[in-house]
Specification:
It contains 5 helices and 15 strands. It has a domain at 3-79: Beta Barrel (Elongation Factor Tu (Ef-tu), domain 3). It starts with a strand and ends in a 13-residue tail after the last strand. The protein has helices at 59-65, 103-113, 133-139, 162-169, 180-193, and strands at 3-8, 21-24, 37-40, 43-44, 49-54, 75-79, 91-97, 117-124, 142-147, 154-155, 173-177, 196-200, 216-220, 226-230, 237-239.
Length: 252
Amino acid sequence: MYHQIVLEVGEVVKYIKPGNFIAISVGGETSRMVLRRAFAISRTSDRGTVELIIAPYGSGSKWLCAQSEGSQVDVITPLGTAFGIPTEPVTALLVGGGYGSAPLFGLAEVLKSRGCRVIMALGASTAAKIYAPIEGKRAVTSLKIFTEDGTAGESGRVTDSLPQLIDEHDVRVIYSCGPMPMLEALSGIAVAADIAHQCAVEESMACGVGICMTCVLPVKNENGEVKNLRSCIDGPVMDGEFVQWHMVGTQL
């Protein structure tokens, strides 16, 4: 079950862009949960609010989802890198896995406002884990849904039919949010199609501000060197082509 949480952040909302995240202090003053929890921002509003879509799995997210309306929480935002927006109208493919697709909805609004044609593909293991399919249909030019058990949309993984979608709609850029294996598969598809792929990586973050070094990923730079970059400040949005997916979890 997903929870929709809306936080009032005031004027700071002007500086939040699709792809940025928020770090929230959880557990209350007497809690042993001393580390903040990082959450992707789904969208913002002109009323000074940010929307989060949270699945209450861990102790921190369960605590946050249990807070009553009007509760005050300590937040830091905006954090991380944002999605790059094309300088001219193109066809963009937005690919999301499970509730990790939430940040794509705010991105879709920005892309459409810039004249882009927006194709969205949402995937999950089962229909209940597809985030906001009806809203997604309203937000984009075309929506495709994939479930591994066939309970909604087409049967199979979201990545299975993407090469065909790319050719059919002349896609020039892919944006993605979701599980790391999905992002890795998408990166291979994008390289084969010779198009850009911007992905918001799902790497666990402890501090969210670049101090603890727990969220590093191996990324190749322009000189061909592979270095550990911090997902929280060098990401979460990265060029999927340069992330060394086969080295994730290994020591450099």
